[in-house]
Amino acid sequence: MRLILLGPPGAGKGTQAVSIVKKYNIPHISTGDILRKNIKEGTELGNKAKEYMDKGLLVPDELVVAIVKDRLTEEDCIQGFLLDGFPRTVMQADSLDTELNSLKYELDKVINIDVSKEELIDRAVGRRVCKDCGATYHIKFNLPKAEGKCDVCGGELHQRKDDTEETVSKRIEVYLEQTKPLINYYEEKGILINIDGKQDIDKVFQDIVTALGRE
Ligand code: AP5
Ligand code: ZN
């Protein structure tokens, strides 16, 4: 299955991605995770991306498109993939179309997770992420079993640098301007699924599976 996860910052894309890739046995391609890994490793790409990410701005299209192009040609993508956080601009969506055409891949569905603005700020500001494995928690909605420790690997939890109220507000503004138009873009292609993201994590996942039509 070839899927895209679309939705504003804090909508629950990363949270749902974990369950989706497990169920359908496809690789999870998160441009945000790839960029954060590059920052952690101090690569040239990471140093460039950091400037934009810390301010809540999008990293330039050409950098992100190159990452995804490379990743899609890897062998594990033959069976399918889940793109999370990409595309985020019409230019990225057009480049993706071109790349998929040349690989003779067709998208199955674009899952759009919808959540109100107030809830998004609460979710992102309360998010805690494992420093070691990247698993995501929330101080109110998704607590780890032991305070401050990851359930998966026991690693220490921390707050993402771009999860302050100010930067999250900026990210939402950027989403509304540059990414939201993609809802129409994929609706016109007839492959958009709208999911109510303001429900329990498990219910959101159930709705996604039902909408994909593959139990
Ligand atoms: P990225 O990492 O993609 O972040 P994002 O899109 O802003 O999304 P988030 O990771 O903040 O949220 P999410 O939807 O995954 O929510 P989560 O599941 O964690 O991008 C970061 C930056 O990288 C960008 O700002 C940009 O600079 C750059 N970048 C990345 N891709 C790019 C691209 N294509 N082009 C240009 N630049 C790019 O959930 C949030 C919280 O809510 C968690 O604490 C979770 O536990 C909780 N939660 C989840 N679901 C529920 C629920 N149903 N009920 C209650 N709580 C819930
Ligand atoms: Zn962990």
Automatic annotation (TrEMBL):
Name recorded for this polypeptide? Adenylate kinase
* Pfam families per record: ADK (PF00406), ADK_lid (PF05191)
Q: Which UniProt keywords apply?
A: ATP-binding, Cytoplasm, Kinase, Metal-binding, Nucleotide biosynthesis, Nucleotide-binding, Transferase, Zinc
Please give the Gene Ontology molecular function terms for this protein. AMP kinase activity; ATP binding; zinc ion binding
Instruction: Kindly state the subunit structure of this protein.
Output: Monomer.
A cellular-component GO term for this protein: cytoplasm
Q: Extract the PROSITE patterns matched here.
A: ADENYLATE_KINASE
Sum up the protein's function in the record's words.
Answer: Catalyzes the reversible transfer of the terminal phosphate group between ATP and AMP. Plays an important role in cellular energy homeostasis and in adenine nucleotide metabolism.
Q: What is its EC number?
A: 2.7.4.3
Name the principal localization, coarsely classed.
Answer: cytoplasm
Q: Which species is the source of this protein?
A: Proteiniborus ethanoligenes
Region listing for LID, in residue ranges = 126-163
Q: Which GO terms describe its biological process?
A: AMP salvage
Catalytically driven reaction(s):
AMP + ATP = 2 ADP
Q: Where is the Adenylate kinase active site lid domain?
A: 127-162
Query: What Gene3D superfamilies does this protein map onto?
Result: P-loop containing nucleotide triphosphate hydrolases (3.40.50.300)
| Binding of Zn(2+), residues | 130, 133, 150, 153
Q: What does UniProt say about this protein's domains?
A: Consists of three domains, a large central CORE domain and two small peripheral domains, NMPbind and LID, which undergo movements during catalysis. The LID domain closes over the site of phosphoryl transfer upon ATP binding. Assembling and dissambling the active center during each catalytic cycle provides an effective means to prevent ATP hydrolysis. Some bacteria have evolved a zinc-coordinating structure that stabilizes the LID domain.
Tell me where in or outside the cell this protein is found. Answer: Cytoplasm
Which residues are involved in binding ATP?
A: 10-15, 127, 136-137, 199
